[in-house]
Fold:
Amino acid sequence: MSQYDLVVIGAGPGGYVAAIRAAQLGMKVACVERESLGGTCLNVGCIPSKALLDSSERYYAARHQLSRHGIRLEGVSLDLAALMKRKDEVVKQLAGGVGFLFRKNKVEHLPGHGKILGPGRVEVTARGVPPRVVQARNILIATGSAPSEIPALRFDGAHILSSTEGISLREVPTKLIVVGAGYIGLELGSVWSRLGSEVLVLEFLDGVLPSSDRECANALQKSLEKQGLKFRFQVTAQKAEVAGGKVKVHWTSRDGRETGVEAADKVLVAVGRRPVTDNLGLESVGIRLDARGFIPVDERFRAAEGVYAIGDVIGGIMLAHKAEEEGVACVELLAGRSGHVNYACCPSVVYTHPELASVGFTEEQCKSQGLAYKVGRFPMTANGRAKGMDETEGFVKILADARTDRVLGVHILSAHASDMIHECVAVMEFHGSSEDIARGFHAHPTLPEAIKEAALAVDGRAIHA
Ligand code: NAI
Structure:
């Protein structure tokens, strides 16, 4: 029987990164994965959706924006098959890259479904080969999450879609209903809207992106409305009926007073994700799930003696980079080092146009915690580079402690916000102040100058606004 120091179950960004780091630290490591390497993020999540966002943004620009730059195009048309093929190639190359990294670091990939049989024992089952049991000094569960379903809108893969099908359509739907104005709803709603669909988003709450800074989320909503997305808030999608190649979605207003039906070619249900723990053998090591189905862990990510868990399956913010940091911290602690995850500095990005990138507290959180804070804002319209790029939508908002000036949160609504937020993450990691940002050089002309100006604005001394 093969013996390992660590057997990781799941090769998503949490699991594969943990496996590589553990191998770097001298452990003999295997990683069990039943689908292709890279998990949800790489195969059906972050990576393919961003490839589609980038392609659709170019198509949209060709049709609606390039003429402003003096570029005249005629006969612009969409080759959806080629667009999807490029996306699939990006995914294939990156999944191959994970396999290469495994070989380079001597991490053994065990293809199949991993199930814990008891302390230190993992069974790997794959089609066409007899089940195999391996021995593990430690087991790390990194099985991630799957799309949540609404009971009366069960995914059928053809008309009622999860994000997995929502990134692989063969035709642009004439009308698409999106249930949920969260990350996935807005990103995939944007993709299909840019490619020509009429998109209607049904959302239970009062606005888009419930956990984001309200001012920024509301501004993003307005921008998406200008791009053509339609929203209906305070409604619950109740059920869907498929007939004659169309889908009808029944909704009820939150106060129960109003009901309605919307017909479309497809409905994309994006109402959150649930942890994946089925057939993992958790009971064999005494792990009991919490009320929401997550695996409870202690501060060292320990779920049971010799069993650890990280990423979406333990709850918290469901982001690939959160899983990666947890995976690294977990195996570093296992190796006797001092792994640590600073959740307070975990950035999040919604890859719409403009993008919304955030780190730290929202203004609502500052208020609810009774913090005395100052706000510095700077509009992208006043940034020279943004003007040159024709990307003047949005603003930078910095929240700083009124007494100490320590940065509490930063929210950037702008093109390329995802590339800009990391300066603020670094400053917050070092407990820096808005003054630190304001005094630091920012190359001219660049979009990040807007961050410097917002930092100056905290103290009422922005230069260009
Ligand atoms: P989400 O939690 O972001 O948003 C779900 C939305 O659906 C909420 O606003 C909720 O109020 C609404 N909702 C729930 N039930 C409803 C109903 N019956 N009718 C109408 N509205 C309803 O979930 P989403 O977008 O599915 O994303 C799942 C996870 O994936 C998130 O936790 C996110 O962190 C992650 N993700 C991250 C991305 C990124 O980092 N850019 C991109 C895509 C996903």
The chain has a mean pLDDT of 97. The longest helix spans residues 80-104. The longest strand covers residues 129-141. The pocket of NAI is lined by residues 150, 179-185, 187, 202-205, 210, 236-237, 270-273, 318-319, 348-351 (CB under 6 Å).
